[in-house]
Amino acid sequence: MWRLVHRRKKKLRMLGVLLCYNDGDIVEESVRYLREQGHEVVAWDHGSTDQTPEVLGSLRGELVELTTVPRSVDFYELYPMMSEHLLREYVSRYDWVSWPDQDEFLEGPDRSRSYRQWVEEVASSPYDWVEFNNFNFWWTSADDPSITSAVQRVRHYSIFLGCAPRIRSWRASATNVRQFNHNPPLGERYPTLFNLRHYPMRSEDQMRRRIERDRAGLRRGPSNYHYENMASWPERLVIPPDKLHVDDGGELDPSPIFDWRTVYGW
Question: Residue 245's beta-bridge partner residues?
């Protein structure tokens, strides 16, 4: 029994945070998932040129904040800017922060409970933040293009071992200045890793736009070098479906069936 079990009696106020750019095909599902998991949602759109602004605009009534950030604002400053904004405007009003990338969906360490229920478990414990396994979901030739929903269409995946830490969830009081959500927040890490489903490449066309336009020139020193790598070997980005696991609704398979270094580089 956790020593802070009395926290269970209080309904958690949870805030979801999204930084969005040219992911209009999935951003509605991202917002709705956080809402279903009991979160109020703050969304910033970083000058998207696809349907993202229209989709977010249609969801304005479901958001506690929708802000457009000009594309001239340096991408590398967005996480610190949002962190400072949260510290000024939101941290005192919420108990928990979940901050996935806009193409990620957060889950607990297993599917016996919802993500919200798992967060309530952590919030009642002595721990302050959660790190996630990164399950990469990737388009394949087996996808049914008639399915509009990206998360229903793209079902092939494999865990991505050795990637930068995925820290996406913490007590609001543990919020600090974030660096792509790889650095630890304040306090102590929950001992069990949660899982996230990451959908970076959802169709061949979307993948090419992302590499050739949306993420072109993003590298700075050792950061985000992988987009240049992927652009240099497009033949490696087509992954046969039998090289990946299939999400059938059961537990995610953590066995590393596919080596993502062959796609991203190392």
Answer: 157
- H or E stretch at 16: strand 14-20
| Number of separate domains in the chain | 1
- pLDDT at residue 9, rounded to an integer: 57
Q: Are 134 and 196 in contact (CB under 8 A)?
A: yes
CATH number for position 95 = 3.90.550
Q: What is the pLDDT of residues 229-252, one digit of tens each?
A: 999 999 999 999 999 999 999 999
* Domain extent at residue 146: 5-264
Asked if residue 139 lies in contact with residue 204, where contact means CB atoms within 8 angstroms, the answer is yes
Pure H helices in 3-158: 27-36, 52-58, 75-89, 115-123, 150-153
Residue 134 backbone phi and psi in degrees, to 5? -105, 105
Dist. CA 168–CA 175, nearest whole Å: 11
Mean pLDDT of the chain: 95
Structure token digits, residue 196: 């996230």
Rounded distance between C-alpha atoms, residue 18 and residue 28, angstroms: 11
φ/ψ of residue 116, rounded to 5: -55, -45
Of 36, 5, 164, 166, the residue nearest 101 (C-alpha)? 166
Buried b (16+ CB within 10 A) or exposed e, 83-119: bebbeeebbeebbbbbbbbbbbbbbbbeeeeebbebb
Cα angle, residue 171 at apex, residues 100 and 112 outer, rounded to 5°: 65
